[in-house]
């Protein structure tokens, strides 16, 4: 049962949200732009996508505040016959969006490596053997995010295998791009079940939690990609639903889900989510249950930080080329090092706010403020572990590179929505839901803008990849100078390196280039081709590259990538723009 703590006027929520967001956005702009504390990819995306979107949201919040209070549209009970079809529709939209918004292209190296691993898992392998003829060029073909185990003979993704294994399963079933939407739907169903359990007498609050999740651009846009974060959202919510179910079956199944979730791509994410609930159990004096879940965290470290690397070393060979291992000490040390060098809470949390429902954070703050503190100390407030998890996800605001919103806090969108539902239940009247509908309208406008800007950002890279992929050369060398993150175009077709074999020119020696030009048909992809396609400019250089390019010109090995010639008259006519 949810007790009331008093009615909070929607006008105050809206004005507080507008003022707080304006102050945060101003601080972000001053720190990252005015005083230029490093112009990272996140800042580039902030200026292109989030900053203008949030300026509009602040204005709309302020304008809507005087009229935000009151009755809105009546909501039916959140039963399965209504909720499940909505979830399925959202999953179908995410699947279609991979092709419409992302043009069947995974823009980041993280996503490409996940798909690369899915491709060899689909074939029943633990790694992809490097063909003997390409071994001298293996690092130019797989520039980063590769596993060190057996790296002289195998290409293996650096990430843990579960996310790629799920994609491989859906690939065998027909389409790997169904993995993200299916996980999204599973997570939303679990969120619905948890909300019903926590707020059984407030169906309006259940709807608040659901509608905030349904309207999260970060949730459904990320589900269009191969990122592991959709799996973290889904498995976190499934774990929470099973844990609240309780009993031997509930807790046992939750432990299994936690172990699986830790293997998605990096094992430290689930412990951040689960640890606050162990504290909550201890406050309730549920010693046995708390001990079980603590042992689950130990099992996670043993399985994924110890046994899995040992298995890879046994199957593929000792680590070579790069770091000796990625053990527990390495992981913890890396996290602390990144907190010192790559901690960017302003820009990352700004992106998080922009890509979720505009009311999610204000209502979640209400949920935290409405906690009964004495009950909290006795472990009677579920809001406590939810809030601690959200705090951990936000405080560890490490630089993420690409991401639609802040993906490192993706697994905590569900807890944010639940906190918002709890805040609504304690601080709002059941039938006065106009502020929810106004917030959904503002969020919809922001989402339209963000989707448009995302498509505009991805399109040049997708077009560049299609051009490279269409080449009939044996090898395509990419000169990344002059373009933003052009190195991420070094990839195969559907996760499989092949013809053309794409390489990063900056990672080759002059002798290697000579050998390639002598033995293979080689084409070059550089700024003269990717700049007209719209790839953003990057002013940077690499020592020695000018001399290497000059040598390639001397030996006539700098022909640009050319699409294949049309094979039929109709194709030629289409290529000419139907000029006749």
Automatic annotation (TrEMBL):
Transmembrane regions listed in the UniProt entry: 12-33, 39-61, 82-102, 154-171, 178-199, 205-225, 237-261, 267-283, 290-308, 352-370, 382-402, 408-425, 437-458
Keyword Transmembrane helix: yes
The keyword Membrane appears for this protein: yes
Top-level taxonomic group: Bacteria
UniProt keyword annotations, A-Z: Membrane, Transmembrane, Transmembrane helix
Name of the protein: MFS transporter
UniProt source species: Sphingobium amiense
Higher taxonomy: Bacteria, Pseudomonadati, Pseudomonadota, Alphaproteobacteria, Sphingomonadales
């Amino acid at each position: 049962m949810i007790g009331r703590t008093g009615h909070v006027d929607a006008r105050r929520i809206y004005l507080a949200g507008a003022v707080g967001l304006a102050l945060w956005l101003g601080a972000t702009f001053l720190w990252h732009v005015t005083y230029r504390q490093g112009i990272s990819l996140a800042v580039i995306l902030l200026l292109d996508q989030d900053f203008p979107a949030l300026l509009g949201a602040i204005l709309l919040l302020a304008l809507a505040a005087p009229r935000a209070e009151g009755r809105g549209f009546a909501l039916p009970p959140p039963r399965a016959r209504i909720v499940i079809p909505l979830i399925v529709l959202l999953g179908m939209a995410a699947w279609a969006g991979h092709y419409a918004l992302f043009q069947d292209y995974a823009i980041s190296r993280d996503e490409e490596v996940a798909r690369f691993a899915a491709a060899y898992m689909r074939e029943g392998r633990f790694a992809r053997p490097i063909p003997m003829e390409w071994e001298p060029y293996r690092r130019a073909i797989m520039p980063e995010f590769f596993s060190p185990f057996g790296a002289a003979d195998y290409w293996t993704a650096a990430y843990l295998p579960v996310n790629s294994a799920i994609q491989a399963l859906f690939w065998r079933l027909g389409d790997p791009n169904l993995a993200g939407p299916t996980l999204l739907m599973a997570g939303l169903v679990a969120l619905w079940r948890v909300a019903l359990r926590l707020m059984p007498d407030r169906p309006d609050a259940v709807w608040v939690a659901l509608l905030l999740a349904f309207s999260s651009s970060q949730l459904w846009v990320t589900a269009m990609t191969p990122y592991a974060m959709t799996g973290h959202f889904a498995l976190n919510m499934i774990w929470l639903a099973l844990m609240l179910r309780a009993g031997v079956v509930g807790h046992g199944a939750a432990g299994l889900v936690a172990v699986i979730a830790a293997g998605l791509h990096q094992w430290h994410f689930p412990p951040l989510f689960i640890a606050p609930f162990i504290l909550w159990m201890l406050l309730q004096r549920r010693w046995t249950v708390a001990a079980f879940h603590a042992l689950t965290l130990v099992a996670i470290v043993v399985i994924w930080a110890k046994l899995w690397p040992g298995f890879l070393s046994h199957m593929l060979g000792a680590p070579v080329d790069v770091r000796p291992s990625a053990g527990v000490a390495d992981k913890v040390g890396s996290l602390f090092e990144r907190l010192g060098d790559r901690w960017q809470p302003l820009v990352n949390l700004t992106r998080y706010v922009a890509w979720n429902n505009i009311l999610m954070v204000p209502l979640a703050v209400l949920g935290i403020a409405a906690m009964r503190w004495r009950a909290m100390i006795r472990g009677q407030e579920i809001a406590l572990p939810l809030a601690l998890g959200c705090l951990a996800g936000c405080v560890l605001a490490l630089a993420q590179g690409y991401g639609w919103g802040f993906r490192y806090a993706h697994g905590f969108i569900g807890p944010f929505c639940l906190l918002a539902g709890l805040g609504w239940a304690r601080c709002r009247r059941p039938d006065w839901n106009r502020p929810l509908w106004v917030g959904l309208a503002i969020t919809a406008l922001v989402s339209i803008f963000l989707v448009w800007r995302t498509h505009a950002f991805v399109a040049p890279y997708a077009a560049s990849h299609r051009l490279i992929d269409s080449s009939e050369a044996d090898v395509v060398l990419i000169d990344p100078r002059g373009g933003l993150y052009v190195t991420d175009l070094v990839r195969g077709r559907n996760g499989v390196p092949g013809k053309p074999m794409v390489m990063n020119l900056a990672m080759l020696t002059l002798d290697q280039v000579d050998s390639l030009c002598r033995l293979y048909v080689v084409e070059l992809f550089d700024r003269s081709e990717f700049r007209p396609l719209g790839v953003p400019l990057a002013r940077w250089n690499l020592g020695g590259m000018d001399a290497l390019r000059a040598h390639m010109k001397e030996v006539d090995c700098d022909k640009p990538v050319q699409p294949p010639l049309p094979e039929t008259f109709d194709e030629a006519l289409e290529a000419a723009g139907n000029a006749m």
